[in-house]
Write a structure and sequence with these properties.
The complex is a heterotetramer. By secondary structure, chain A is α/β, with parallel strands linked by helices. Chain A folds into two domains: 146 residues, Rossmann fold, CATH 3.40.50.300; 83 residues, Rossmann fold, CATH 3.40.50.300. Helices cover 35% and strands 23% of the residues of chain A. In chain A, the strands form two sheets. Chain A has a six-stranded mixed β-sheet, with helices on both faces. A four-stranded antiparallel β-sheet of chain A has the order 2-1-4-5, covered by helices on one side. Chain B folds into two domains: 196 residues, Response regulator (Rossmann fold); 130 residues, 3-Layer(aba) Sandwich (Rossmann fold), CATH 3.40.50. Chain B is built from 13 helices and 14 strands. In chain B, strand 10, helix 10 and strand 11 form a beta-alpha-beta unit. In chain B, helix 2 packs across helix 11. The chains are: A alpha/beta, B alpha/beta, C mainly alpha, D mainly alpha. At the A-D interface, helix 2 and helix 3 of A face helix 6, helix 7, helix 8 and helix 9 of D.
């Protein structure tokens, strides 16, 4: 097996006295979907924030494509190929749908100190941007204002932005949150289709989705990764069953620590 | 909602139309037009109103005509800002096509407006501001002052201190050009020791709390304090000087601080300690000239208060203009004739006769005056002695006229 | 003798500090809770002073006038909140800046119309107009001590109100999370009105305290407003404690800069340059302080935990 | 199809400005030209402020400092006898850009109101610094005897030629901003205004783009200051005061922040209102204040916003 695309070793972060993540080791392989599950407050979003560079870990290392990126700022990581979607939709509300993806393309097409040519007439930007929109099924909405989209469309747009960025690793924080069953199903198909070109680190509460998509699963409880393995291993793991799966049905949450 | 918006649009449109309509063309010269730029908003409007009142009074005394021409006065507010002062000056000389432009309390407003007025070929007469530049290098054949040059009054005060045997002095003044001129003026003539000097913040957010400076002055062991705080800062300073009890131990000498604008307020606040404080000035309400008596009594009768020196200068200005217009028989195109007349200063000035230097600043007397009570119990200033006779400012030699 | 001067200056700094606190407290609460940039806060300071001018001469009693004027400013605060501010909480800061600048112009014009352009003095009763001798030959005007006492009393009262009472809990909740305060089941609109009026009354009180020293003037609030903003920025927006500490800090730095900077500058440069440089530098001091603090702590000294 | 109200107004305003010198000559109204000059110069500065404020979300409360810096770049060389426009103009732009670079580097670490206040702080520092420099007139400022020289090309002393120089700067500023905001750079800056965190996670170093934008705006405003110094024949620290910074913000917001022509409309309406009201009554702040409040409460999006609504309604 090749070296994983993303590795973390002993990643720890505390706020005041409260531990958010503690000694997390994670390996995301190339071309894989790696899901992280756990109850609310287990530290999943904090983990993503550290991977994306929005929080600095107190200790531990992050290695991406063989390079230590622990101290790199967010934008530098993004340029290396890490794209993030947000738990709460994070798009450019004042801009059109196309502009949103256009910015994602622009981010990876050299620097933006270009003051004269009109960006919206630049085929190098609009081409890939439209392609990403078509891929998620938003092509017909390209000219609409982003704030006018439905909730599900917002999530689709987020994915389109992650795609347009030509990134290697997508960090997806609950991409299905608040979606209807039909929209969810479409998203599952979409994500599965991405596997050929991207690796995905997925945080998701919907266990049906997780077990349908994930190649590997890591379970986090109270900031610690208590188990990691293939879906069937996780399903069989006694610790996990006790701590999480067994107590309540899939898709439910436990506690609010 | 819609009504409001339509209202706004019409206000905006009206404003734009108004700019065009109000800009009515100037009429032929059967009038003498005088533009008067002063400060009519902000607290400094106290000064502007005093000047305006005196100018109106002068117009009344003249009977509204000079050399058979009707007088039209247009007042404009400079808002205490040089830029606005310049804009108003532009309006007066270009749109209203005035023959004389006067007023100007503040040095920076005058400096900013100067070129607009002089380039348009108008006579510009400062009724107050006297920055050193205009007395020296920037003097101009069409610029006159009916007031004084900044340095003169404090120089006279330094002389007073020497005469009275004061050995040490503490100076406080605002940190701007006139303030620096005042401090420099007194330092130029005072022969004793300067115990300390505080230049306090001035301008938009001027410092009005002088507790720290007063504590320093007290600790310095000085014999006397000199201050220059015009306008609202003056009242604030004097009050705190009293509240700190310094009036019992360290006498106060001032320029342009204890005047007809501030004294009624001190009286209202019953701050008796200010009586007896000494200041120098080219003029005082009790100065014994026929013109001054007429001016002060009429001003008192009409407005119920003593005129300030700003008022005196403004009152003079109209008579000064009248002397020029009458000298050429109302021919306002005869600039040379009017200028020659003005250079003679041949008009009844409230300060008595004076002459003009080459830089068109007055050569005049300076007096020591004391805050005192008049026969009716009102607080005013009275002349103690003459400090300088026919004193000329020191910048005149830099003027190439 | 030297340290007598130093202690006098400390007291002067303290007096300026508590005055700034009175002004800044309301500003930081309104800002922190309603996220409302109120440039017109200084106008309320001015209105307080003018109310006090009129009432003092009408009633002949300064303390009584202050009492009534504080109530009047409180009512004025309610009126301003209901008529203008309330409609601006949901707008962005730019709209708020524009509208409240409009309020400044409006109040300045109104005062000019009603009271005229001249400064209005307030005559203090004799028992406030004297001086008090402290040990070791320190003398301080009685009224300045009164300002310090009133300012500290209000500060203590306010901190008690904010930390110990139910209303204070709501205010703190509001300052850190507006939605949560709403979720606690309070009538948030009433709370806003109350906080705004309370801030207005404190600003008005500050105006009443300064007017006997400097007179009530048109635009007096605009001048000090910027300094009050500096205070709340340094302290951290929404923090009463921060406002208090920053106000004392700014007061001390201002007074000490004016007292000692020129002597200090004379040590490192010639007298002439020191005389020119030190007034400019002491005027700049608080801005340098603010820029420096924001460089290291971009949200002030005591930012509320969550926004 | 909506009628092109906004386009029509834009063309009408620019045309009116272009023919104004001929018009004022014919009507014998030279003062209108002075008013128009002041409006256009301040509008140029407001357009530059709009670039950072309207498009970049950076509310600078210290923009007047750049006008002062530009004006001093006319005055200080002139004080030493250097009148060449080829020296003064680049000096103004360079000094403005440098001041923006240094202060922007510190200011842009903060956000929101903290940013507003720290920009104000730097402008105040510049203000007090120039007050204390007695050599250049301190608080009183200095006058210059002639405008910048472009020998053989333009005679800046001629009112009409100077007028068209100013008009060219205004139109140039508008065109420049319209290109910048639609280019990749402008997209990046607007994205950072909309959602800074998202921009960073896309891979943009938003701090640098903001800083670059801040520097461009500073340089443009200093150029406007260069015009202002020439127009006034006078410069003083007062030009840097915070009330002037406030005035620029009002022009932008009144006209409509983030719309290309908004700052120009704002400048026209604000200055004409001020001029007319202040000549009519000393209580003009009362009226202007009420108008400002009404505009904010009832006319969202400023004048451009009103025009846009008009366009949709018809």
């Amino acid at each position: 097996m090749n070296a994983p695309l993303l590795e973390t070793r002993g990643l720890s972060k505390a706020f005041g006295g409260i531990t958010a993540t503690e000694g997390v080791d994670l390996d995301v392989g190339e071309g894989k979907i790696h899901a992280v599950i756990g109850p609310n407050g287990a530290g999943k979003t904090t983990l993503i924030a550290q991977l994306a560079g929005m929080l600095a870990p107190d200790s531990g290392r992050i290695i991406f494509a063989g390079r230590d990126i622990t101290r790199l700022p967010t934008h530098a990581r993004a340029r290396l190929g890490i794209a993030r979607s947000f738990q709460i939709t994070s798009i450019f509300h004042a801009m059109s749908v196309l502009d949103n993806t256009l910015l994602a393309v622009q981010a990876h097409d050299g620097h933006s100190y270009r003051f004269w040519r009109r960006a919206r007439r630049d085929k190098r930007l609009t081409g890939p941007a439209m392609a990403a929109l078509e891929q998620v099924g938003l092509g017909h909405k390209a000219a609409s204002n982003a704030s006018g989209l439905s909730h599900g469309e917002h999530r689709q747009l987020e994915i389109a932005m992650a795609l347009a960025g030509a990134s290697k690793l997508l960090l997806l924080d609950e991409p299905m949150a608040g979606m209807g069953a039909e929209e969810s199903a479409r998203m599952v198909v979409l994500l599965r289709g991405l596997k050929e070109t991207k690796s995905i680190l997925l945080i998701e509460h919907d266990m049906d989705v997780v077990f349908a998509l994930a190649d590997r699963i890591t379970v986090m409880v109270d900031g610690k990764a208590i188990a990691s393995g293939k879906p069937e291993q996780i399903r069989a793991d006694e610790n996990v069953r006790r701590a999480y799966l067994g107590m309540e049905g899939p898709g439910e949450t436990i506690g609010d620590a | 909602m819609r009504i409001h918006k339509m209202g706004l649009i019409s206000v905006a449109t009206a404003a734009i139309m108004g700019a065009a309509v109000l800009a009515a063309p100037a009429l032929a010269a059967d009038k003498v037009k005088i533009g008067f730029v002063t400060t009519l908003t902000t607290p400094a409007a106290v000064i502007g109103n005093d000047m305006k009142d005196a100018f109106d009074l002068a117009n009344e005394h003249i009977g509204g005509t000079m050399a058979g021409l009707e007088i039209e006065i247009i007042y404009e507010d400079d808002g205490f800002k040089p830029e606005i002062g310049k804009q108003k000056t532009d309006k007066l000389v270009k749109q209203d096509d005035v023959d004389f432009i006067t007023g100007y309390i503040w040095s920076h407003v005058l400096l900013a407006s100067r070129k607009s007025a002089l380039d348009a070929g108008k006579f510009m007469i400062s009724a107050n501001a006297g920055p050193s530049q205009l007395a020296g290098k920037l003097c101009h054949k069409n610029f006159f002052s009916t007031s004084w040059q900044n340095d003169q009054t404090p120089m006279a005060l330094g002389e007073v201190l020497n005469q009275r045997g004061v050995k040490s002095l503490y100076i406080m003044s605002p940190n701007y050009a006139a303030g620096k001129n005042m401090a420099a003026g007194v330092e130029r003539t005072f022969k004793g020791e300067i115990k300390g000097k505080d230049m306090t913040k001035w301008g938009k957010d001027a410092q009005l709390d002088f507790s720290a400076e007063l504590a320093k002055a007290k600790a310095s062991g000085t014999e006397a304090i000199f201050v220059f705080y015009p306008g609202k800062a003056g009242g604030a300073f004097i009050k705190q000087y009293m509240q700190a009890g310094l009036n019992e131990s360290i006498p106060l000498y001032t320029v342009y601080t204890v005047d007809a604008l501030s004294l009624p307020k001190f009286q209202k606040a019953e701050m008796k300690g200010v009586l007896g404080s000494l200041a120098t000035q080219f003029w005082s309400p009790d100065l014994d000239t026929p013109q001054n008596e007429k001016f002060v009594s009429a001003f008192l009768a009409k407005y119920g208060r003593y005129p300030s020196f700003y008022a005196a200068q403004s009152y003079d200005t109209l008579f000064f203009i009248k002397s020029a217009v009458e000298a050429v028989g109302g021919d306002l195109t005869n600039m040379d004739g009017m200028r020659a007349a003005m250079e003679k200063a041949d008009y009844p000035s409230v300060r008595g006769p004076y002459s003009y230097g080459n830089n068109h600043f007055p050569i005049q007397n300076f007096y020591l005056r004391e805050a005192a009570t008049d026969s009716e119990g009102r607080w005013t200033t009275k002349i103690v002695s003459t400090v300088y006779s026919n004193h000329q400012d020191v910048y005149a030699k830099e003027c190439k006229l | 003798m030297e340290w007598v001067l130093f202690v006098s200056q400390l007291l002067n700094g303290l007096q300026l500090g508590v005055l700034l606190f009175l002004l800044a407290a309301g500003l930081t609460l309104v800002f922190g809770i309603m996220d409302f940039v109120n440039l017109a806060h200084g106008s309320l300071y001015m209105m307080g002073a003018y109310f006090c001018v009129t009432l003092t001469s009408a009633l002949g009693s300064f303390p009584l006038a202050v009492l009534l004027a504080v109530i009047l400013t409180f009512i004025l605060g309610i009126a301003v909140e209901l008529i203008v501010s309330r409609h601006l909480y949901q707008r962005d800061h730019l709209d708020q800046v524009l509208a409240t600048f409009g309020l400044i112009l409006f109040f300045n014009g109104a005062v000019h119309l009603i009271w005229g352009p001249e400064g209005n003095p307030i005559a203090l009763p004799d028992y406030l107009n004297g001086r008090i001798s402290l040990p070791a030959g320190i003398e301080i005007p009685t009224f300045r001590l009164v300002i310090i006492a009133i300012g500290l009393a209000v500060a203590v009262g306010l901190i008690w109100l904010v930390t110990k009472t139910r209303m204070g809990m709501l205010i703190r909740a509001g300052a850190s999370n507006r939605r949560m305060a709403g979720a606690l089941g309070v009538d948030i609109r009433k709370l806003f009105t109350l906080v705004f009026a309370l801030g207005a009354a404190m600003a008005g009180l500050a105006g009443m305290m300064i007017a006997p020293i400097t007179e009530a003037n048109i635009g007096m609030g605009d001048d000090i407003l910027i300094v009050a903003f500096v205070v709340i920025i340094i302290g951290g927006i929404g923090s009463i404690r921060g406002a208090f500490i920053a106000a004392l800090l700014v007061g001390m730095i201002d007074v000490m800069g004016r007292s000692y900077l020129d002597d200090f500058m004379k040590l490192i440069m010639d007298n002439q340059s020191a005389e020119t440089a030190s007034p400019a530098l002491s005027a700049m001091a608080i801005y340098i302080l603010m820029a420096g603090i924001l460089y290291f702590r971009p949200r002030g000294l005591f930012p509320p935990r969550h926004r | 199809m909506h009628p092109p109200v906004r386009l029509g107004v834009r063309i009408a305003v620019l045309l009116a400005l272009a023919v104004l010198p001929a018009l004022t000559g014919a009507l014998d109204q030279p003062f209108l030209l002075d008013l128009a000059l002041r409006i256009m110069i301040l509008a140029t500065a407001a357009v530059s402020l709009n670039l950072i404020l309207g498009y970049g979300g950076m509310i600078s409360f210290g923009h007047a400092a750049y006008i002062g810096i530009g004006a001093y770049a006319v005055g200080i060389p002139a004080y030493y006898g250097e009148y060449s426009g080829y020296v003064q103009l680049p000096l103004a732009i360079g000094a403005g850009a440098l001041f923006a670079l240094v202060t922007g580097y510190i200011c842009l670490r903060t956000k929101g109101v903290y940013f507003i206040m720290i920009t104000l702080a730097f402008a105040q520092m510049a203000y007090f610094a120039f007050v204390s420099i007695e050599e250049y007139g301190g608080d009183d400022g200095l006058v210059i005897e002639q405008r910048s020289e472009f020998t053989g090309i333009i005679d800046m002393e001629s009112t009409h030629q100077f007028y068209y120089v100013v008009l060219v700067f205004l139109v140039g500023a508008l065109y420049l901003v319209s290109r910048i905001v639609n280019a990749r750079f402008g997209m990046a800056v607007q994205g950072a205004k909309d959602n800074d965190q998202r921009m960073q996670s896309l891979g943009f170093d938003t701090f640098r783009y903001r800083l670059a934008c801040y520097v461009i705006a500073g340089a443009m405003a200093a150029a406007a200051g260069w015009l202002m110094g020439n127009y006034n024949y006078f410069f003083s620290p007062e030009m840097m005061g915070w009330t002037h910074s406030g005035e620029l913000i009002f022009m932008v917001v009144l006209g409509g922040a983030g719309s290309l022509f908004g700052p120009l409309y704002g400048a026209i309406v604000l200055i004409i209102l001020e001029e007319q009201l202040s000549s009519a009554t000393v209580y003009w702040p009362l009226i202007l204040g009420a108008i400002l409040i009404a505009v904010v409460l009832f006319a969202r999006g400023g004048l451009e916003g009103m025009l846009a609504k008009l366009e949709r309604r018809k």
